[in-house]
Design goal:
14% strand; 210 residues; DNA polymerase, domain 1; 2 domains; two-stranded antiparallel ribbon
Amino acid sequence: MAHSKDVKKNGPISKGVSRRGFLKGLGATSLGVAAASKSELLAKLEHAPSPNGTLLGKNAVALTLNINGKIHQVKVEPRITLAEVLRDNLGLTGTKTGCERGACGACTVIMEGATINACMTLAVDAIGQKIETIEGLESDGKLSKLQESFIENDGLQCGFCTPGIIMSSKNLLDTNPKPQLEEVKKAVSGHICRCGTYPKVFESILAAGK
């Protein structure tokens, strides 16, 4: 137990270190460690290798992307997401950006047979991958059976979330042409429909399967 002369109420702690001084010192130390860690992280990211083994810095680099069966050449910074490239560089605005943190599903596209959030995928990570967007479903000016089903069954209202939901639905039907209701619900579980038209979405997918 400390002697009374060493500890005083609201006063200095033993050896002349006050509570306020102690907390200030602790805060300064934490900030210093955080700053050092951030600097080290940025240095590592600056020299981080891309998927093809080439070092990518902060400057724009040329990328070759395979989207809907067509080869596209773009030049962007390594930090740019696939969603940004699709919309801003290639004009494929069917892919929507909502939350930009992979939570709403609006930016869903298919890459190598799997659905991904384009807002959470760097464009450099899509090099050499086959990417499908909502624009790729149309053929010779005609909508796909799945798209037609969404129209016929009122599977959309504002339509903002619809492209992402359709891409997840397409991926489901590609592997499971006649899904059950629970399988449909699971396939689109990562999508937020702010209009709340989920029952009609399910109907549209099931009808396309039939």
